[in-house]
Amino acid sequence: MIAGGPSGGDSHQARKSQVREAHQISIKEILDVETMEDAPLIQFGRAERSGPQTMHNDALVITAILANYEVGRIFIDSGSSADILFGEAYDQMQLGDVSLEKVNTSLYGFAGEVVHPRGMVSLPLTMGRGTARKTCLLKFLVVDVPSAYNVILGRPTLNTFQAVISTYHMKIKFLPGGIGEVQGDPLQSRRCYVDAVVEERRGGR
Fold first, then answer.
1. What number of helices (H) and strands (E) belong to the chain?
2. 34 band by pLDDT with thresholds 50, 70 and 90
3. Domains, the chain, with CATH or none
4. Residue 25 and residue 27: Cα distance in Å, rounded?
5. Are the CB atoms for 203 and 147 separated by under 8 Å?
6. Distance between CA atoms of 134 and 73, rounded to whole angstroms?
7. What is the pLDDT of residue 176?
8. What is the pTM of this model?
9. CB contact set of 70 (below 8 Å; sequence gap of 6+)
10. Which InterPro entries does the UniProt entry name for this protein (predicted)?
11. Cα separation of 50 and 65, whole Å?
């Protein structure tokens, strides 16, 4: 699990304000729930399962379009409070003019270490195909730590896309505009797992 980052506010005062807001139930929130009742129902059927047909524990790893680049090794992690773009991948994308915003809040959870992001960058992420294709502008924390992944999509992205994930089906589905979906890649997932174990052993030396 990755905690921290500015998603809950980039200062102590901002984070306290978020806690106060959580105790308030507004009329707008009630109306939003009523409106969502008309949205399509997201569900996963047994026939949709792909990848390993035996029971598996593979992580949900996908490929998506990030800032007009097709990026693989994207780990879907509902336990992360931030969306992460690892420094090596960011540098390879050669975004050039895109300026990094300063971030004051550190991240926790990378092998128990406290990591201070290089900065934060806003980039468009596209998932899905055809009429169910959806693009959202997201804020990524650029982090300079070794990783088997290029990107971690956490709760900020899942909530922005109104997404539901199923690791059993190796799939992510999202609203609105119908139901869009992205299929996970079990081979890519297992390669990432092997690389992560190798990296961990190197770090332990």
1. 5, 12
2. very low
3. 3-203 (2.40.70.10)
4. 7
5. no
6. 19
7. 75
8. 0.79
9. 63, 64
10. Peptidase_aspartic_dom_sf (IPR021109)
11. 22
- What mean pLDDT, rounded, does the chain reach? 82
Q: At which residue do the structure tokens 């990094």 appear? A: 100
Half-sphere exposure of 2 (CA within 13 A, CB side): 27
Strand intervals (E) in the chain = 3-4, 61-66, 69-76, 84-86, 107-110, 113-115, 119-127, 134-143, 151-153, 163-166, 171-174, 180-183
**Which two three-digit tokens encode residue 122?**
């806003």
Q: What is the pLDDT of residues 67-110, one digit of tens each?
A: 999 999 999 999 999 999 999 999 999 987 677 999 998 998 76
pLDDT at 8 over 50: yes
pLDDT attached to residue 194: 93
Bridge partners of 27? none
- Would you say residue 20 has pLDDT above 60? no
- Per the document, the length of the chain is 205
At a CB cut-off of 8 Å and minimum separation 6, what does 181 contact? 128, 132, 171, 172, 173, 174
Three-class secondary structure of residue 80 per DSSP? strand
